[in-house]
Specification:
Chain lengths: 297, 297, 297, 297
């Protein structure tokens, strides 16, 4: 298939590489062009604008940092919306706001283009190892056309209906669950440490009794070890995502006091210069509040 | 071994039965004597007071509802403290406050008796199936003497040092982690439902991506199904335990805002007559706050 | 002076009337024209667009419901920005977001126009009685030019520097203080009622010991009487304002957990159909959580 | 009248002095006897035990630091309960838990003694200046007998019914309102400071628009000035009182999320060694969370 790919960061680059590896014809665009060249050397066409990457493509992916980056790439001059032909499909894999996802759905519909929302669970290592879990929502026919591409990216796929923004709500809800668990673990480690329990002992118990879940165990281990650097997913991104959760919750009229708590804590971390710690750093903040060690930026 | 067992509720009865089955000589006491008779028929001696169950025992277990019940059984006239001989060991498996555990440690020491704190993770079904996970803390020699008994009750054992109350902190921290996850799931289901996602679809995703943990999956399923009755563990017990968490946290000077949130929500549920719902009922409260269905007592 | 006035709601109408009464030449615009006619009968010129109200004016006021209404009036075709001549000053009295206030400052500066932010404290009765308290921020010369107009509207004026959006931060902070007190009073009345104290008795005490402040006493009386209708300021507006507070706080990196709590509570009220209760209705929610009476929409 | 007075701290000493000055016959007890001697020089009898201070008294006051101190003084050997004759009345002015107040009511009733709960609002300066506001609850006849004494202590009296512990609930609710306002002010000052508003300017506005209440203005001034030392009422006492509020609220089944927030913040302050700051120090914590200045112990 003829595919465009916009956004070659830690997540986008391995995703694009898998699509290339699956035999598709790929045009890639990245703001910092050097990253695009790497794929150029493997046979991708390097585009100089998002629009150029979209031109003639059946499907064009975007995998970008935030709402702002997506808006620029889509709506800017020489943007994807202008470049993609009628009938082309935009597959949006970034973690963006529900409101922007709704705007994209409308804009592409007006342009006679398709729009599929396909955010993913998994960190860069999972992207490398084709172990992402892909959420997907959008018009049935369009989802089906993209299905083989999405299956090439990960270990599983959840189809979430025909309203594209629903996939974004679910992605944000997932990040909310993870952050909740981080906060809970942070508070629990602070309490047990003050009772003289070695973090390692509580971690082993958690693994034995609770978890058997790679996600939760990973964060429990980070907190147990006080290892917040380098960040796998930075605190400032946690702040961004909890902001998106609360925005979606506000629009849907769903009070989420736990999400508010998480957002306030991430905001406090960022305000104090800790935005580049891993988002498991809620554990560091909980320890500090308890009079244990101070977090180091 | 000569063993006493006080408290034959949903948890205590199967635990006592396993000890009997392992060939030990058992004396049992329960406030409602009928339950004790059942074990009497299988060879246990039925005592008429806690003290009588303790008399002559090398080890005496207690498995009771709360601090109040434990205080009565231990310190009352004809209580366990008076009945247990010097050198006897009290194994306390109830979920009690850290402060009471400290008091027990002192009282038994003064009486020349041993005290081992051994709370467990697992519901009545797990107790039946010898699938409990046992936490244990106390003087090394005493823990070692009790180890075969504790191993007869479950699938695993975590030894948490020589300070008995530490095991209570860890047990409460575990319940705190579970309640945190329940609240997070409750809020996430409310948000995704309002976005038009079927609870079943979000549940499947949760199972696929996050959990692979029987504890979390169980609660996610209860919330997805809106099934809060009959309670496996009632909301009023959740309230009790979060109260104990906050008490321990206060004594240790550990601010736990998430635990405060959980306690307030359980308290609100109980205040409104929902105390007998399963503690997963935080999900019902989150749905109600969002203008979805009202909880039914 | 030649003045325009856009927005003749409960607040705007009496404000415009006072300006007219002070002898100024007034052009007025309101979306629902009937309200403008009332002032027309008293000598104001009735404009058919915001731009027309601004044309030729030295100063043009806006007093509108929210960000959205302000954006339409300012940036729309035949809007205020287009109609106001170079050198004209826009005085914005609406409670709007800090971000929009910043955008207005930039837009007017680009158009060679002045921008003064002048939100007010006080309900419609205070506006009628010239008892508003006016906050004002903006370039010194422009503030001075508007000062006599602003003094004609109320009983006092606080000048808050040359950065116009600062006045919006302060206005939002004031509403946040009021909502905080409402929540605190709501919880305190729920607690004392459950201890058998008559709300009237606690109210008298509050008046005697704490308050001597018309704002706080007013809300204490509403909660003591359970009088949430008709709304002086509706819960859905409380939700809006707490949203603006948190937005400003997020941009400034200030964690405000109390504001989060207030927003969640207002959101829950609105989600359940109580958006038209007075924002003192936090007291009704606190009572309900305590198992006292249910709020009635 | 023959009066005993136990507890001559910052509050108790001036209260006792006023009673002496009103012409009553006074016996005083204080753990640190030096303070009692000062009153001895003015004509009071210095007792060596609480029981001795109570012996032969018609009314005996207690004004002590916390539950623990009251329990010792009342129930200890040579305690007040043993020393006070039948028909004597204990007037308890300390800020204690509702649960202890209930216990006291029962114990005195069993001993044929009266019990009047009479906590006060006001700091030491107010006690000196006879400006306290006294809450009182208890059996009508007993309250009437004590009324002249209570009126000699302050500027006003609120009679709160015949259930003595109700006065304690109201006292705790009052402290909860103050702490709520402190937190709200703390967050508002942090937000406005980040917007470039001088604390002094926001303070003036608060005084002009909101307050006209000495209590709130005092705390606003402390926060505006960052003046948290010496403490008028220390953070660790704020923690104690918020703990008592939540305990009472738990027993009465009243969820108070704002009280939980306050308690967590005080607990965090104390855990980090700031327990001796004034309880207005919530303002210091809010500023720190926002990345402004760090609190200094």
């Amino acid at each position: 298939m003829k595919i465009g790919f916009v956004g070659l960061g830690n997540m986008g680059l391995p995703m694009a590489r898998h699509l290339l590896g699956a035999g598709h014809e790929l045009a890639v665009y990245n703001r910092t062009q050097a990253k695009a060249e790497a794929l150029g050397a493997k046979g991708a066409r390097v585009a100089r604008t998002p629009g150029e990457a979209a031109r003639g493509a059946e499907v064009v992916f975007t995998m970008l940092a935030d709402d702002h980056a997506v808006e620029e790439v889509i709506f800017g001059e020489q943007g994807l919306l202008a470049g993609l032909g009628a009938g082309g499909i935009h597959v949006s894999s970034s973690t963006i706001s529900v409101a922007l996802s709704e705007r994209l759905a409308e804009a592409h519909a007006r342009a006679g283009q398709g729009y599929v929302s396909a955010p993913v669970f998994g960190r860069p290592e999972a992207a490398e190892a084709k172990q992402l879990w892909v959420l997907v929502a959008g018009a049935k026919a369009e989802v089906e056309r993209c299905r083989p591409l999405l299956e090439a990216l990960g270990r599983g796929l959840s189809v979430l209906g025909e309203q594209a923004p629903a996939a974004n709500v679910v992605k944000l809800s997932g990040n909310f669950l993870i952050a909740s668990m981080i906060e809970a673990l942070g508070e629990a480690f602070a309490l047990t440490r003050k009772a003289g329990i070695e973090p390692k002992a509580f971690l082993e118990l958690f693994q034995a009794v609770f978890a058997r879940s790679p996600i939760f165990e990973r964060y429990a281990a980070l907190i147990a070890g006080g290892q917040y650097q380098p960040p796998g997913f930075a605190m400032r991104l946690g702040l961004k995502d909890m902001g998106l959760v609360l925005e979606a919750a506000g629009d849907a009229q769903v009070p989420m006091p736990l999400a508010s708590l998480l957002r306030d804590n991430y905001l406090g971390g960022v305000a104090r210069g800790l935005g580049e710690l891993d988002w498991a750093g809620l554990g560091a903040l909980a320890a500090e509040r308890a009079g244990l060690d101070k977090p180091t930026p």
